Each structure stands twice: as C-alpha cells, then as structure tokens.
C-alpha cells in the first residue's frame, strides 16, 4: 500500500509577554480517535478534523511519545500524519491529511509565532519525486514544502523549504530522523513573515528577519498537514 508519513507537535503564541494563544499539543488526547469528537455541529477540542480520506482516523493520524521531539519536555506525545492510497478528500486528486486549529483566539492578527516541530523517518518517507505541502495557510502566503516542486526542472528534490508566496526563502536537505523546530514570526499588521529554526534540542534562532508577505488569513485556516 502507498503510504507516506511524518510527525508533528505544535503551539501558537503571541509576541506579547509570551502569551499562548492556542495550544496544539496532544497532551489531553488519549488517542487520535479523540479527533472524531469534533464536527461542524460539535466544535470541541483544539483541532478541526475533516480533511482526510474515507478510512478510519488511525489510517491517517496516530499519537505516541515516539512521535514528538524528545527534547520537548512540555509535550507528552506527538502525531504521525500519513497519506495513503485512500487519502483523497472531497473529490480532489491530491492526497490530504490535515488538522486545522479550532479556536476563537486572535491567531490571525497582531504579532504572533506559529511554532511546531517536525521530522520524517526512512520508513514510508515522503517522496522526493513529488511536491508536499506542510504547515501552510489557506492562501499559502507562507508554508513548508518538500520534494520536487510542481513545474520545477529535474526529477527529484530532497530539500525541505520555507516559502513566502510560493517563492523559496530557505532550504536544507531533509535528512531522516532529524527534528526540525520551526517558528513562523508573523506580523499581520505589518504584512511581514520571519523564519526561526533549529534542530534537535538546540534553541530556536532567527534565520530570516521578517519579509514582506500577503499575510491576511481567516482565523482557522492554518493547516498542519501531509499533502
């Protein structure tokens, strides 16, 4: 069976006094099946879960302490996202498994940091032959990508990229079993996005100072995804 997987844990905070606006860690989950508690008529928990294939939630998202960065003492477990041969949503031709923040907090205004950690392994690794969109906004004004970008020359690309408006601003080879700690520094008022990064247990450092971006977004539409 076709299957590609990567692991995440996430947090979103304000630049003002380190306030946590939305907590996407899975500390209060007993299993990924808790995601089934959310629906449009029962919007509970930290995530909207509706973009996925026709199979059970455990086909696409699973939780375990082994799916988090071991250096993250604030998280009990992380999530493994999988796309397989059934992961088609709403008649689309791309495979999608996504979680979207469920919150009324002002995560789309002011000066905020979208902070998450991610890794891949060699088992069912995302293909370097295809474009993968990871941790993106609905408008794609900023996002992580991996693999051969659609329309690019060549046959494969092993780089993990950070984009603004579809243009690569930073990249590194995405080696297996390396945790990448990432923060998007977004100033929605100034229309700018910066990039913070580290690996493993190293502290985040600002790699790219805020640059111009079309930062408008509705509150919910940041996607943690394997696409």
Please explain how this structure is put together:
The chain has 227 residues and is mainly β. 0% of the residues lie in helices and 42% in strands. It has strands spanning 3-14, 20-23, 47-48, 61-64, 78-84, 97-101, 111-119, 132-137, 142-146, 159-164, 167-173, 180-187, 192-199, 205-212, 222-226. The strands form 2 sheets. Strands 1, 2, 4, 5, 7, 12, 13 and 14 form an 8-stranded antiparallel beta sheet that branches.
Task: Set down the secondary structure blueprint.
Elements: E1 3-14, E2 20-23, E3 47-48, E4 61-64, E5 78-84, E6 97-101, E7 111-119, E8 132-137, E9 142-146, E10 159-164, E11 167-173, E12 180-187, E13 192-199, E14 205-212, E15 222-226
Antiparallel strand pairs: 1-2, 1-5, 1-7, 3-6, 4-5, 6-15, 7-12, 8-9, 8-15, 9-10, 10-11, 12-13, 13-14
Helix content: under 10%
Number of DSSP helical runs: 0
Mean pLDDT: 89
Derived from helix and strand composition plus strand pairing, the structural class reads: mainly beta
Radius of gyration (Å):
16 Å
Number of strands: 15
Low-confidence stretches: none
Give the biggest beta sheet: 8 strands, antiparallel
Shape type: globular
Distance between the termini: 17 Å
Order of helices and strands: EEEEEEEEEEEEEEE
- β-strand amount: 35-45%
């Amino acid at each position: 069976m076709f299957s590609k997987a990567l692991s995440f844990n996430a947090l979103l905070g304000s630049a003002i006094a380190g306030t946590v606006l939305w907590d996407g860690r899975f500390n209060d989950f007993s299993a990924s099946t808790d995601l089934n508690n959310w629906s449009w008529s029962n919007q509970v928990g930290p995530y909207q879960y509706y973009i996925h294939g026709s199979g059970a939630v455990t086909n696409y998202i699973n939780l375990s302490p082994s799916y988090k960065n071991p250096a993250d003492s604030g998280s009990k477990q992380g999530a493994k996202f999988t796309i397989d041969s059934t992961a088609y949503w709403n008649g689309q031709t791309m495979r999608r498994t996504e979680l979207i923040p469920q919150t009324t907090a002002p995560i789309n205004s002011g000066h905020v940091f979208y902070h998450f950690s991610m890794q891949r392994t060699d088992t069912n690794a995302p293909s370097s032959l295809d474009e993968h969109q990871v941790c993106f906004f609905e408008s794609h004004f900023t996002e992580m990508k991996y693999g051969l970008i659609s329309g690019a020359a060549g046959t494969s690309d092993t780089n993990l990229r950070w984009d603004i408006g579809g243009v690569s601003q930073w990249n590194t080879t995405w080696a297996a079993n390396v945790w990448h700690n990432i923060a998007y520094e977004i100033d929605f008022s100034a229309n700018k996005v910066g990039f913070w990064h580290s690996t493993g247990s190293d502290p985040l450092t600002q790699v790219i100072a805020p640059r111009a971006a079309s930062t408008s977004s509705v509150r919910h539409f940041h996607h943690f995804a394997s696409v």
